[in-house]
Amino acid sequence: MNGxxxxxxxxxxxxxxxxxxxxxxxxxxxxxxxxVGRKKIIxxxxxxxxxxxxxxxxxxxxxxxxFLFYLGIFIYSAGIVLHAVSTVNYAAPAENGLNTNxxxxxxxxxxxxxxxxxxxxxxxxxxxxxxxVLLLVFQVTNHWLILAEERWCVAEFGEVYxxxxxxxxxxx
Length: 172
What we know:
Structural class: mainly alpha
Number of strands: 0
Number of helices: 7
Largest sheet: none
C-alpha cells in the first residue's frame, strides 16, 4: 500500500469534519498569529516539513507484518481518534472564544498532539528514517509556533487565558 493513502483520514477530519461541524472553526483553524523575524523562519520550516512529509509519503510503502507495523497501526489509529475528538471539541468553543471543553480541559493543544501521534504512526508503518527526521523538524517547529500562539492568546484573552494555562497542560 502506498504511504500517501495514510493521509486520507487526516484530510477527511481536518477539512471535511471540521468544515461540516463549523465553518467558523474551519476558518479559525487556518489562523496563524503574526510571525516576524526568526518566528517567520520557524513557520517556513514547519510548512516545509509538513509538505515534505506529505510528498515523501508518495514514494514509500507501508511495510506489512512486522512488529513495527502492528505498533504503527496502534499509534496511527490512536492519532486518528485523537484528531477526530479534538476537532469536534475545537468546533464548539466557549462564548468567550476559548476552547476549554473535551480534550481541551487537559491539553491546550490536543490537535497538535494528535498530529504528532498520527505522523509517528505513519513513521512506524513505513519504517522510514526520512519521515522520522521530517517529523522531528515538524514537532520542534510546532513547539515554537505553539509558544507564539500562546503569547497571542494571552494578548487576546488576557487573564482568562492565563488562568486556563494554569489548569490545562500545554501538551499532555
